[in-house]
Amino acid sequence: xxxxxKALEFYEKALEIDEKALPSNHxxxxxxxxxxxxVHNDxxxxxKALEFYEKDLEITxxxxxxxxxxxxxxxxSFAACYEKMGDYTTALKALKNAYQIQQKAFEEGNPAxxxxxxxxxxxxxxxxxxxKALxxxxxxxxxxQRTLPERHxxxxxxxxxxxxxxxxxxxxxxxxxxxxxxLNIQENV
Length: 189
Fold this sequence. Notes:
Shape: globular
Number of helices: 9
CATH superfamily of the largest domain: Tetratricopeptide repeat domain
Number of domains: 2
Distance between the termini: 20 Å
Helix content: over 70%
CATH topology of the largest domain: Serine Threonine Protein Phosphatase 5, Tetratricopeptide repeat
Oligomer: single chain
Structural class: mainly alpha
Number of strands: 0
């Protein structure tokens, strides 16, 4: 795991093939740009990641309807990058764009909202707005409880996130309660 240079090599080869085989406004090309951006984001090269995310968004906006879920994915990529950069205001703006698109594309409670709610929660936690963070993590958990198997790792992550917010708020009993729920799932997966 974590062999970014190998991942980048394969994604760049895929991009070369896509650039030769697909029209310049094809969604598949946008996906290749997003994949390369993701690797740069994971490597901590945020300016390069943003460059590729911008290419992804540009193509996606031209190629797909304004309420297409792939457009939300593009905005979520920006949000993840800005969150890692510590630019929480810009991350929130990108998240709000993604969320507005998801609201048009999906019914409320669709599993697609879970990752958006989770990212909102992380950004608000980093901004020390703990009540909003808890609200979003709870929305995420509600979707996971309704749509995933009972002991799914994503539920454990969300319980852990909720526990972390309670810890930051100084409510250590609640923090322990949620971290125990997370641990219980992780031990039984």
